[in-house]
Amino acid sequence: MAERVCLVHYHEIGLKGKNRSTFENQLVDNLKCALRDTPVKLVKRICGYLLVTFEGGATPEYQDLIGKVPGVARVSLAHECRRDEEEYCKAAIESLGEVPDFATFKVHAHKSSTDYAMHTLDINRLVGGALCEAYPDKKVDVHHPDVTVHVNVVQGSVYVYAASEHGAGGLPVGTAGKVVTLLSSGFDSPVATWMLGRRGAICIPVHFSGRPMTSDTSEWLCQDIVRALAPSGVVGRMYVVPFGARQREISLCVDQKLRIITYRRVMFAVAERIARIEGAKALVTGESLGQVASQTLENIAAVDEMAHIPVLRPLIGSDKQEIIERSQQIGTYEISSQTAPDCCTLFMPRRPETHAKMDEVHEAWDSFDHDAMIEDLVDHVEYMDFDQCPSYRPPRKLRERHVELAPAVWEKKQVPSEG
Ligand code: ATP
Ligand code: MG
Question: Nearest to residue 94, comparing CAs of 134, 132, 154, 139?
């Protein structure tokens, strides 16, 4: 009897030339990690696919888990047959029977092994004949079929499948370095985090909470968000920065219209310090142009000035509706729908500046000891590990490393040493 297995297709990593095996090996590791709570038996490369087998056979549920892993273009729930014509024809009949709605089909045979004598055209004819007999009301259409039944001869086996599910696409996490993502519990930043993870980056979220001036609810929501992202394996470690008391200090000395910009400059400075400790090469935010007062071009520039590494904004041109749809797809929508006070709701001005003038921003910045504040916030960061990203390596000695990297004076536009 044919065993049910998953065949994993990966378009993009096939294009990577000499790096191909690095990408494939990373995808194998990531899949093993994503499937560790299933009875997975084997994840291995076979002729341009990954084959995943399970104790008791693959199921649509496991297929779904595999599809969430970045780097997976498509997943097929295939039958693994012997080189036995009767067996693989039967599997083809079963595969086509699982496709819900179709009128036309074709068979596409492919041989990766040359020691199987039958020609692919003959395999097409043989399997096509069996299918016509089993489904007399369906028609063959070799040009534009509703469904294609694939019959792949690979090594000693024949893999047969009809329907494939789309996967996350992109590249395996761990092939594009590390990024620090500024994570709130809103809709946008979890999506921005997932998008960078889907391009192969290991994401290190940093969340600024209003603690001790607010409850720690936003921190719990952020933890839930990271857990919701677990199937994709994009998050290495999450940092939490209790920011409430420092915001209060800022609110006492900075003109109310420049408060948000000033908070955000501090957030960027602290996030960049964490990036250096982690060896991350960019910051990521969930900003989209014009969405709120702080997301105008002038205000973005006023905050960007704090960063010496690239600031990536994958959602800058997205509409809220598109972001919400993506959050539903990645499983963070319900969590982000809950509101919680965080540093963004604390000490907010009634009329924030929408078009910041740099000289005013600098004046506000110099009205308090920002270096000491940044230093103190970095000293009090907390972190949490989630064990979902197999390629994440924590900084070896967080504290020593931090002391080593801390500049005596925070200088504008100083180029940081590489982490
Ligand atoms: P989101 O839905 O991601 O919360 P938003 O629409 O609420 O975004 P802002 O509050 O202006 O927009 O935040 C813009 C970006 O700044 C967020 O996408 C996120 O990257 C970062 N950010 C906002 N609040 C926090 C926070 N408390 N901790 C860390 N980063 C934050
Ligand atoms: Mg927000």
Answer: 134
